[in-house]
Specification:
The structure holds 3 protein chains of 3 kinds. Chain A is mainly α. Chain A has helices at about 15-20, 25-40, 45-70, 85-115, 120-135, 140-160, 165-195, 200-210, 215-230, 240-250, 250-275, 280-305, 310-330, 340-365, 375-380, 385, 390-400, 410-420, 425-450, 470-485, 490-500; strands spanning about 75, 80-85. In chain A, strand 1 (about 75) and strand 2 form a beta hairpin. In chain A, helix 20 crosses helix 21. Chain B has helices at about 5-25, 30-55, 60-90. Chain C has one domain: Methane Monooxygenase Hydroxylase, Chain G, domain 1 (Up-down Bundle), CATH 1.20.58. The longest helix of chain C is centred in the C-terminal third of the chain and has 28 residues, at about 85-110. Classes of the chains: A mainly alpha, B mainly alpha, C mainly alpha. Chains in contact: A-B, A-C, B-C. Chains A and B meet through helix 6, helix 7 and helix 10 of A and helix 1, helix 2 and helix 3 of B.
């Protein structure tokens, strides 16, 4: 007989409660498999798949809302590898709402582009599941699984238009650069695991807290992990794929990934950096702050020169990621008793960004012509005269992205910058404000174009009609942009509650 | 039996593999080769995970490596599928040619 | 301890003996009458018709991809198999769900016609 190298440990199987608390993820995961099977039987009636996808997403949303009230101060599932807290439920709600809006605008767009395949809905749900795993991940393994789950689905979705070179090129670019980033992420995780001896965030946090000096290998691991996350959140200098992929992918896919990937990536950045690597704050603060400033500058300056709305929104989303990262750079610092912390700001901003960005891309999706996107600035000229409601909605989204009150965009920026000022990082806030000032130019440029008189030769522009589903999605996004801006407290209190209950709890308070 | 003497070499090996992979991604032009370099980077992570796991006498590293192997296989399949589709569109595969989107 | 491995050593010895011995015996004793047909590469008795360096049907790639994915998924069975006795019913249910998920994938691939050759 071979010698047993390690003594057998008594096995503990997870309790059934763990499974129950995982309900939102289970519903979406089940929905993914069910949609794959449904695709085999529905034949040409593909809109059934959209209906089923929305039902699953709504059920997941309901389970998340229930989990919000049920989770209380939060606890971990599966021996500390998954979080059941208000933070993950907040993110889940944003993700599921965004996915549902994307599904609403998809069937009509896909039909017009001639790429209405059933896999689309299953893949959207698979990506959403990966993001939800990321939102609740409390272990490096789950983080890796979540990141890869969402990435693999998005690689396929970017190349969903199989006969179109631009789409395939976007997919290949995304795949190669995404894989590159995964390599960095994994190596960083291996180093952190090796230096702390744990893969679970709570234990990593505790191990870091008990050591006095940081090992260079550990710091290398932390930086590599940040590189991996920064790629997913498209932060400078890991943003180069963003404009090309956003432009080449089908617009409904761009809508989906520009919003949800960022939400999920920032959720995991907050959980890992702000709350787990908290005792290394002095080491990563500078890196994060520099990346935030670089993203704001590069994103805004590059957006100025664009002539297509999709590319402009891509660069603007890089800048938006920069603003959000300010909230991360603030960390848990606060010099007053003020309730606005970096994390609360990040959460509010993510919710605000989600409704606004979805709305802006939804307009482009809804307008799409047969077989091509009509997103050039020239194409938008005079939109307000033909499609007053769509143009008004687009104007609202642009104002919100630019940070005008009383939209959500204004309050998102306000909370993040206020958190920075609270933490004596006024310089960082000033960079953000300067960036926002630049951004007003290119947002207003598009808004003004829509309200210019159309040229005569442009009368027959092949804009698509607005369908009921598309109109509903636009209305929901517009309502979110306005209502959450006027009733700030609703989302803000939610963000604050989510921040207060986030796991892992900071080691110093224990 | 792995002893602490071997451990630095294993870590060195993984660091070497990682650097080789990263350099390959930046230098090589053929997407398939770039893709192989990415796999090399992931496997460097695997070597590090398993070596650390053995060194720390913890199982987590090995389990993590299992996950990575499966995820990497899935990535390979998606990658090959995308490249096959591009090939069928009649394009020569070269990352420098990917400039359709950069007008 | 080490003597447990003795049969393997003996086995290795026999393998080496046959692997080296038989071909060299045949080379030493066998008659040699070269002819053009005999110089052709041996391909299951069929004469090769063209170069192997040509474009393959996409079906090969699809099959290879499907093979990789289903092959690698089975890696999870190994750690499970080492503790299946201790896991009792839980282990069976858990792996049942895992394999059921794989079967759904297989069903999907099959119904979509990816397993058909032409």
């Amino acid at each position: 007989m071979l010698a047993q190298s390690a003594p057998l440990v008594p096995l503990v199987t997870p309790s059934a409660n763990d499974l129950l608390d995982l309900l939102p993820e289970l519903i979406v995961g089940f929905g993914f498999i069910a949609l794959m099977l449904l695709d085999l039987v529905v034949g040409r009636q593909r809109w059934w798949l959209a209906v089923a996808a929305i039902v699953f997403l709504a059920a997941g949303f309901g389970a998340s809302v229930w989990g919000w009230f049920d989770s209380g101060n939060g606890h971990t599932l599966y021996f500390g590898s998954f979080a059941y807290d208000k933070f993950s439920m907040f993110i889940n709600c944003v993700l599921l709402f965004s996915s549902a809006l994307v599904i609403l605008i998809s069937p009509h767009y896909l039909n017009r582009r001639g790429i209405h395949h059933g896999e689309y809905y299953a893949l959207i749900l698979a990506a959403t599941l990966g993001m939800m795993l990321l939102a609740g991940a409390m272990s490096l393994m789950v983080i890796f699984l979540g990141i890869e789950g969402l990435s693999l689905s998005l690689y396929i979705l970017s190349g969903f238009s199989r006969t179109e070179e631009r789409s395939q090129e976007a997919a290949l670019k995304y795949l190669l650069l995404g894989g590159f980033a995964s390599g960095f992420l994994l190596y960083g995780m291996a180093l952190v695991y090796g230096e702390t001896g744990h893969t679970q965030l709570q234990q990593i946090g505790a191990a870091l807290h008990s050591t006095t000096q940081a090992d260079p290998m550990l710091l290398a691991g932390v930086v590599l992990i940040f590189v991996g996350f920064a790629f997913k959140a498209s932060l400078v200098p890991f943003h180069t794929w963003t404009p090309d992929v956003y432009q080449g992918a089908p617009t409904s896919v761009t809508t989906f990934m520009s919003v949800t990937t960022k939400v999920a990536a920032f959720a995991v950045i907050v959980r890992v950096f702000t709350y787990t690597f908290v005792s290394l704050y002095s080491h990563w603060e500078v890196i994060v702050a520099v990346v935030a400033i670089a993203s704001i500058v590069v994103g805004n300056v590059a957006a100025l020169t664009q002539t297509h709305v999709k590319r402009m929104l891509a660069y603007s989303s890089i800048a938006q990621a920069g603003y959000i990262l300010i909230g991360v750079a603030v960390g848990t610092l606060s010099n007053t008793s003020s309730s606005i912390t970096g994390t609360t700001g990040v959460l509010y901003y993510l919710a605000a960004y989600a409704v606004t960005q979805i709305g802006a891309f939804a307009v482009i999706t809804i307008m799409a012509g047969r077989g091509e996107d009509l997103d050039s600035y020239d194409g938008l000229r005079g939109l307000a005269y033909r499609r007053p409601f769509v143009a008004a909605a687009m104007g609202l989204f642009l104002l919100s992205l630019g940070g005008f009150p009383p939209t959500v965009g204004f309050f998102g920026k306000f909370f993040v910058f206020a958190a920075a000022v609270n933490a004596n990082l006024t310089l960082l806030a000033l960079w953000g404000i300067a960036g926002s000032a630049i951004s007003v130019f290119y947002y207003l440029r598009v808004a003004l174009l829509m309200y210019q008189r159309p040229k005569d030769e442009q009368q027959e522009y092949p804009w698509s009609r607005t369908t009921i589903a598309g109109g509903t999605a636009l209305l929901a996004a517009a309502a979110g942009t306005l209502v959450f801006g006027i009733l700030v407290a609703v989302v803000f209190n939610g963000a604050q509650a989510a921040q207060n209950a986030i796991l892992p709890a900071i080691a110093s308070t224990r | 039996m792995l002893t602490t003497d071997v451990f630095p070499y294993l870590l060195g090996l993984s660091a070497f593999m990682f650097s080789l992979g990263a350099a390959g991604v930046l230098i090589r032009r053929n997407p398939l080769v770039v893709f192989m370099c990415i796999e090399l980077m992931l496997n460097a992570g695997n070597v590090a995970l398993v070596a650390y796991g053995r060194f720390l006498n913890s199982q987590e590293g090995q389990i993590f490596a299992f996950m990575v192997i499966v995820v990497a296989a899935a990535e390979v399949v998606v990658g090959l599928a995308i490249m096959t589709t591009i090939f069928r569109l009649g394009r020569k595969l070269d990352v420098d040619d990917l400039s359709e989107l950069n007008e | 301890m080490l003597s447990d491995y003795a049969p393997i050593l003996v086995f290795l010895g026999f393998v080496l003996l046959f692997a080296i011995g038989v071909p060299s015996l045949s080379a030493a004793l066998g008659p040699r009458k070269p002819s053009p047909a005999k110089d052709l590469p041996y391909e299951s008795g069929i004469v090769p018709r063209e170069s192997a360096r040509r474009r393959f049907s996409v079906s090969f790639y699809v099959t290879a991809m499907l093979f990789i994915i289903f092959d690698v998924e089975s890696i999870f069975l190994f750690p499970w198999a080492t503790i299946v006795r201790q896991l009792k019913v839980f282990g069976i249910v858990e792996i049942g769900i895992f394999i059921a998920t794989l079967l759904v994938g297989l069903l999907y691939v099959w119904r979509k016609g990816a397993l058909r050759w032409d």
